[in-house]
């Protein structure tokens, strides 16, 4: 079972990795933006996804635990599920482009 991280305005966001994978729900999109998220925010999420995939833990997200053991590669699933639903596909495509860099 993957660890779950939910970026939300109301609920606490805790980025503890509790499994062999990470499932990130990005929920703070803005329908006024062409791709739903500012470029610097998408850059940050791409960097976090790469860190998770390498087995690390992003230093800029809140955690309750300390990294234990040897990091190992893991699957990372990032979903854009937010109020800006019409912008979610564009946000996903922009994130994919950043992950290629």
What does this structure look like?
The chain has 101 residues and is an alpha/beta fold. The protein has one domain. The chain is 28% helix and 17% strand. The protein contains two helices and three strands. Strand 2, helix 1 and strand 3 form a beta-alpha-beta unit. The chain is globular, with a radius of gyration of 13 Å.
What is the fold's blueprint, element by element?
Blueprint: E1 3-7, E2 21-26, H1 39-54, E3 75-80, H2 88-99
Parallel strand pairs: 1-2, 2-3
Helix pairs in contact: 1-2
What is the number of beta strands? 3
Average predicted confidence as pLDDT: 86
> What is the end-to-end distance?
28 Å
Structural class: alpha/beta
Q: Spans with pLDDT under 50 lasting ≥5 residues?
A: none
Shape: globular
In N-to-C order, the SSE pattern is EEHEH
Percent of sequence in beta strands = 15-25%
> How many domains would you count in the coordinates?
1
How many helices in DSSP terms? Answer: 2
Query: What oligomeric state is this?
Result: single chain
Question: What is the radius of gyration computed over CA atoms, rounded to a whole number of angstroms?
Answer: 13 Å
Helix content: 25-40%
Strand order of the largest sheet: 1-2-3
> Biggest β-sheet, characterized?
3 strands, parallel
